[in-house]
Amino acid sequence: MATPANGTSPQVYARIAGLLYIVLIIAGALGEIFIRSRLVVPGDAAATAGNILGSPSLWRLGIAGDLVMHVCDVFVMWALYLLLRPVSRNLALLNLLLNLIQTAVLVANKIILLVPLFLLGDAAYPKAFDQAQLQAWSYLAIKLHDYGFGIGLIFFGCVCLLEGYLIRTSRYLPKLIGVLMQIAGACYLINSFALLLAPHLEARLFPAIMVPCLLAELSLALWLLIRGVDEAEWRKRAGMGSPASAVGV
């Protein structure tokens, strides 16, 4: 097996993955924690509608931030595929496919967040319904987005389990980070299935169960950005002797 692309050091791909992983973590936090959690009032459709009407640009910024996150995610999963391919090409490819499905679900899910803007805006067509109905439908769209997000994270939970295994057995990335990623995968799966099967339980689990996920993903991102991979071991597992032996993908 050759280097990721035309003799490029795997450290380049580690830095790309690490930097963009941090960007997507920040973008995700911006949309969910600092924007939607400020505008959405749980159980109160009227107050939520008022907040969105009062700050439509902020609501749009949250959606845009999420889309930036998903664009970054594509580059991260590409770089991680190249980095983890020496462990097992087939499992790295499976990991990539699961991650692509997760991202596709979450990107499509963003469309739902545009519904409140259409229903609550100044266009003439919503005026066929009374204000309470429009507020209720807008709130329903937001709740539907929450469930779409949870469904997408089922695939990401599988990604974390598989990615954690690849990292743990790679010998060129820390085993501890691999274990943390697998714990994060289990947490994502528990949280998503709790949302579908026992929503009231999920509401109590969510704050605590997301802590291991943040710890694992931030640890992986920072390690890739600051330390990268053990390049000698990576090349050994890739079946290469030196950078000069690279002939491309």
Topology:
Elements: H1 10-39, H2 45-54, H3 56-84, H4 89-110, H5 115-120, H6 131-168, H7 175-197, H8 199-226, H9 231-237
Helix pairs in contact: 1-3, 1-8, 2-6, 3-4, 4-6, 6-7, 7-8
Write the element-wise H/E pattern from the N-terminal end onward.
HHHHHHHHH
Which segments are poorly predicted (pLDDT under 50) over 5 or more consecutive residues?
241-249
Main pleated-sheet profile? none
Broad shape: elongated
Radius of gyration: 21 Å
Question: Helix share of residues?
Answer: over 70%
Describe the oligomeric state of these chains in a short phrase. Answer: single chain
Number of helices: 9
Helix and strand content put the structural class at: mainly alpha
Question: What does this protein look like?
Answer:
- Helix 1 (10-39) packs antiparallel against helix 3 (56-84), helix 1 (10-39) runs antiparallel to helix 8 and helix 2 crosses helix 6 (131-168).
- The chain is elongated, with a radius of gyration of 21 Å.
- The model is unreliable at 241-249 (pLDDT under 50).
- By secondary structure, the protein is mainly α.
- It is 78% helix and 0% strand.
- It has one domain.
- The chain has helices at residues 10-39, 45-54, 56-84, 89-110, 115-120, 131-168, 175-197, 199-226, 231-237.
Précis, in short:
With 249 residues, the chain is mainly alpha-helical. The protein is 78% helix and 0% strand.
Search tags:
mainly alpha, 249 residues
